[in-house]
Each structure stands twice: as structure tokens, then as C-alpha cells.
Design a protein that fits this description.
19% of the residues lie in helices and 33% in strands. It has helices at residues 7-12, 101-106, 191-197, 200-213, 220-230; strands spanning 4-6, 27-29, 49-55, 60-69, 74-78, 84-87, 92-98, 115-119, 134-139, 143-154, 168-179, 184-187. Residues 1-18 form the signal peptide.
């Protein structure tokens, strides 16, 4: 697995976006929403945001308006002609989605990353397709930490307060720890759970890192820092 210790470095590097071109996006026209009358949202963020899109031919386009439907794992964008299209994921290398400023400003969840990297190629994880866009928090030779976002469409049971049950979206996220031999463990982002999932030889080092740096592994930024250090030789 190609070494990419933390994607924050990628986002901060101007060289990462040095090759920018006017791309003709490959995709299909966005469908009319099939979610009429459904409570909740199928999208990662409720409002349109801004993304950087990298294609398999080496081009990168910034400032792309997007919505990410995590129920279908499809990225809807506005193309050069102003039309809404769903991108063909075979054409994508990676995408970087900017988190809405309103969510960051709320401050209710500390340590949120302002940008999220999504890549394909994690089909060795159960339930993940080869073209699924998966959030990569850390990627290295020893450990990678990725996250799958999903909005499940469910029908709540009837009760006295809802005589006519309707459908609703329920947000889900699952973290996966991948070690050097591609073994995968579904993990909770808590210190004890993550330490237990590490190789035995790294557990004492991990405990020391958490203690010395006062890391809260429930925070995205601390998770990135934690695995960046673990992946150092």
C-alpha cells in the first residue's frame, strides 16, 4: 500500500494541486430525488459544498460544487455547463470534500477536520465495493484508518405517536483499522478499543503517545496525529 501518512499533508501541499485543468466530467444526469416524503437526509452534508476532484488521467479540478449521497455512495456535482450530474466513479482517482463552515463554527464536536479525503480501492473490506468512495483518515505502511459513511433508509415501527409509519434516513459511520497485511478490524474511536486492535508490539508505544500528547481519539484531528506517529519508522 502506497504510503500516505496523513492526508492533512496532502491538503496543505500546493504541489498536490499543481496540475489543474478544465475537465469534462464523465457522468450521467442527476436523477430526480426518489426520497420524497422521507425524513432525514441521504447526504453527508445537507447543503451544497465545495470539492476538489482528481481524475484517473491525472487532472485535478478545484472549486467543484458537490453533494455526496452516502445512501448510494454517489457524488453529485455541477459541471461546466451548470448541469447537475452524478460522477462516474471509474473516472475518479480521489476527491477532497470541504466540510461546511457552519458545521465547523458550531463547535459542538471538537477536532473536526475542515477537509475530508475520499478514495476508492477498499473492496477488501466487507460490504465495500471496488468503486466506493471511502474517507481516508490515515494511510501508512503499518496502519491505515478509514471510515465509511452511510445513510440507511429504514421504516420505524408503528407506535401510538405515529399511527402511519413513514421511512427515514439514519446516519451511520463505521471506522476500519487496516494493518500491514490488509487484515481489517471494525473499531470504535476510543483509546482502549484502538489500542486493543493494534499489533501487540505497538500497544505500549500507543499508550505512551496518548499519555504524552494528551490525545483524545474521539477527535478526528487527534486520530490523524496518532496514526501519523505510529506509522513513523
Amino acid at each position: 500500500m502506497k504510503k500516505l501518512l496523513i492526508f492533512v499533508c496532502l491538503l496543505a501541499s500546493q504541489g498536490a494541486y499543481a496540475q489543474i485543468s478544465n475537465l469534462d466530467f464523465n457522468g450521467v444526469p442527476a436523477r430526480l430525488t426518489p426520497y420524497t416524503g422521507v425524513d432525514g437526509s441521504p447526504y453527508l452534508f445537507p447543503d451544497w459544498g465545495t470539492a476538489s476532484v482528481a481524475t484517473t488521467n491525472g487532472g485535478v479540478k478545484e472549486g467543484v460544487s458537490y453533494r455526496f449521497d452516502i445512501h448510494t455512495n454517489e457524488l453529485e456535482v455541477v459541471n461546466e455547463a451548470g448541469n447537475n450530474i452524478i460522477l462516474d466513479k471509474d473516472y475518479l482517482d480521489y476527491v477532497v470534500l470541504e466540510r461546511p463552515a457552519s458545521q465547523l463554527a458550531q463547535g459542538t464536536t471538537p477536532g473536526l477536520l475542515p477537509k475530508l479525503l475520499f478514495k476508492k480501492g477498499f473492496e477488501f473490506i466487507s460490504g465495500v465495493e471496488a468503486t466506493d468512495l471511502i474517507n481516508v483518515l490515515a494511510e501508512g505502511e503499518s496502519y491505515s484508518l478509514v471510515r465509511k459513511f452511510y445513510s440507511d433508509l429504514v421504516t420505524p415501527p408503528k407506535n401510538s405517536y405515529a399511527p402511519a409509519s413513514g421511512k427515514m434516513f439514519v446516519f451511520e459511520e463505521t471506522f476500519y483499522l487496516i494493518n500491514s497485511d490488509r487484515s481489517v478490524t471494525s473499531v470504535k474511536t476510543r483509546a482502549n478499543a484502538l489500542i486493543k486492535a493494534l499489533d501487540a508490539a505497538d500497544q505500549d508505544r500507543a499508550k505512551q503517545l496518548i499519555k504524552e500528547r494528551k490525545l483524545d481519539l474521539g477527535r478526528e484531528d487527534h486520530l490523524v496525529e496518532f496514526f501519523a506517529e505510529l506509522n513513523k519508522p
